[in-house]
Design goal:
Layout (H helix, E strand, L loop, with lengths): L4 H32 L7 H12 L4 H13 L4 H17 L3 H14 L7 H17 L3 H12 L7 H14 L3 H17 L3 H18 L2 H13 L6 H18 L3 H13 L4 H18 L2 H16 L9 H12 L3 H28 L1
Helix pairs in contact: 1-2, 2-3, 2-4, 3-4, 4-5, 5-6, 6-7, 7-8, 8-9, 8-10, 9-10, 10-11, 10-12, 11-12, 12-13, 12-14, 13-14, 14-15, 14-16, 15-16, 16-17
Length: about 350
């Protein structure tokens, strides 16, 4: 049976209403269950923060509202820092990274100086670093990652060293980045952290590609592909194929890069990698002068980018689309893509300025 467009709209509206009702019933029952399971002597600010935490990812707006009510009680730093932390998490889930950063900084300012809070202090500094890194403020993000590193034991260091290595790579401090990744990799191997080992190996390979050690990078990447003991194997194998494709692209072997990138798309890549794979296939076709094929993949990449606002900002796709369009003689389309590029760039710069204002 084929539904008409009007019937499809009605079905979609009904589904949306059902989802809305389910979400709010879940919120209601979480609150009822919480209160039924706790002693009357529990302090109200603990109740509010705990309910807020239980609502994260179910109803982020309600989580924010309850944590704000906890702040209104003005019950001291030990409770206030956690309210800000919960609010920041909810805003991050809503892809509102500027508000998330604001509350993380408030949490950082209010968290008590006490060893029992070291784990949360690490998490706060790490998340501040991640958001600032999104806006290419690498020196500032590095400062927060290094702060976080002070409060972790050796078993946890590989993850933070992975973050630090990435920032050093973006700052073009490639030798330092390689050393940092290698240190992280050794720790991951020592503590049998298989997933992290795969993540670090991928990043170390990218640095080797940047340095020009292509074979060494590909050997490291193929070792990930062959190791099916890694949890989430398909995801990391997809990432490895993605980076192998990148190595061939750097060597201007565009036919091979297209072939490998297409293999990567068959695996479960992250959203960011899927976007870059689509974009790089398109750009490889551009370099080969096959502009119609380039346009197909670049348009897919642009649509994917527009529908995933949480992706790190990378609006080069519009410049590549402009190049494909102008070579195909589509002057108006080419101008439209150039306008999109400048619009995205302007918006990105404004968000960067807001980051600097908050700090």
């Amino acid at each position: 049976m084929v539904l008409s467009s009007n019937k499809i709209k009605v079905v979609k509206i009904k589904l949306a209403k059902v989802k809305y009702l389910i979400r709010h019933y879940v919120v209601f029952f979480v609150i009822i269950i919480f209160y039924s399971c706790h002693d009357d002597r529990i302090k109200p600010e603990f109740d509010l923060n705990s309910i807020s935490e239980s609502l994260l990812e179910i109803d982020n707006d309600s989580a924010i509202s309850l944590a704000n009510k906890s702040l209104d009680l003005n019950l001291g730093y030990e409770h206030d820092y956690y309210s800000h932390f919960l609010i920041s998490y909810a805003y991050k889930e809503k892809n509102d990274f500027i508000r998330s950063l604001k509350h993380l900084l408030l949490a950082s300012d209010k968290i008590p100086i006490n060893e029992k809070f070291n784990s949360n202090r690490t998490s706060i500094n790490k998340n501040i670093g991640r958001i600032i890194e999104r806006y290419s403020e690498y020196d500032l993000s590095l400062k927060y990652y290094q702060q976080a590193l002070k409060y972790v034991d050796e078993r946890q260091k590989s993850g933070l060293l992975l973050n630090i290595g990435h920032v050093l790579k973006e700052k073009d401090e490639l030798e330092e980045a390689a050393k940092t990744y290698l240190n992280a990799l050794n720790l991951a191997i020592k503590y049998n952290q298989l997933t992290r080992k795969a993540m670090i190996s991928n990043q170390l390979a990218l640095v080797r590609i940047r340095i020009g050690k292509y074979e060494s990078a590909r050997n490291l990447l193929f070792s990930i592909i062959s190791d099916d003991k890694i949890p989430k194997y398909k995801k990391y194998a997809g990432r490895a194929y993605h980076n192998i494709g990148h190595s061939f692209m750097e060597q201007r072997n565009y036919k091979e890069s297209i072939k490998i990138y297409k293999k990567a798309l068959k695996f479960k890549e992250t959203e960011s990698e899927k976007f870059v794979s689509l974009m790089d296939i398109g750009q490889s076709f551009n370099q080969l002068g096959i502009y119609d094929s380039a346009l197909v993949y670049l348009e897919l990449g642009a649509k994917y980018y527009q529908s995933h606002p949480q992706l790190p900002k990378n609006f080069s796709v519009y410049k590549y689309l402009q190049n494909s369009s102008i070579n195909l003689g589509n002057i108006d389309q080419s101008q439209n893509y150039l306008n999109l590029y400048f619009k995205e760039n302007d918006s990105f710069e404004k968000r960067k300025n807001r980051i600097n204002e908050i700090n």
